[in-house]
Amino acid sequence: MLASLFGVVSIVMGLWGVNFVGIPGSESRWGWFVFVGALLALLALGIWYVRRRGLW
Fold it and tell me: CA-based angle 4:16:35, to the nearest 5?
């Protein structure tokens, strides 16, 4: 169960790490912080959903 939560975060981080131009937010000073905040929010949402369903 824990692997499925972190799997989503790993996929998103893998896409962010691809070396190409035009990633939204990569040129912004706050882009990295927004990206990390979105990942943490996505992880928190997944944990909330799993706990709500009684699977954890």
Answer: 80
pLDDT in tens, 1-56: 677 778 888 877 777 776 667 767 777 888 878 888 888 898 899 889 989 998 87
Could you tell me the end-to-end alpha-carbon distance of the chain, in angstroms, rounded to an integer? 8
Within a 13 Å sphere around the CA of 31, how many CA atoms are in the beta-carbon half? 9
What does the pLDDT read at residue 19? 67
Reduce the secondary structure of the chain to three states and give it as a string. Answer: CHHHHHHHHHHHHHHHCCCCCCCCCCCCCCHHHHHHHHHHHHHHHHHHHHHHCCCC
